[in-house]
Amino acid sequence: MNEILLAEFENPNKLLKAAEKLSDCGYSSYDVYSPFPIHGMDDAMKLKHSKLGWIVLCGCSLGLLLGFLMQTFMSLDYPLIISGKPFFSYPAFIPVTFEIMVLFSAFSTVFGMFALNKLPQHYNPIFKSDYFRKATCHGFFLGIDSNENGYDREKLRNLLSEIDAKHIEVIEDDV
Q: What domains can be seen in the chain, in order of their start residue?
């Protein structure tokens, strides 16, 4: 059986300090939930840089290459002489190549983000909490999964109480 320890905090500053404290204690896979981004949270949680930029660069490069190769093949396979233009007129390829590059970049961004965020996630046991509904408007939460290394419910309860958690709840997942 899996469980999540959910703690609510009064304001974003207390949530930020709680994330710093958990990171300093060696916890690495926990989530914070707030109605808006909190400046400095990535550093407090000691998160690594996202791989999404590299995924977008690969999609961009692939679009650039495919757009240019497609037009090159078409101009050589079906030659048309228009206004004395040579068969392989690469300056004319720039607009279409750019648009295909942008298209592939956009698709790689969306699908890369879905893959990295493990979306779509249709079920999360944290949605069972009535307190968690406040996360969309005025609640600041921190959730620790029992799969975390060094998870000890009582030790974490005491730690979260020391760092001014307003409410602490254990959510058990039966699935």
A: 2-49+124-173 (3.30.70), 52-116 (no CATH)
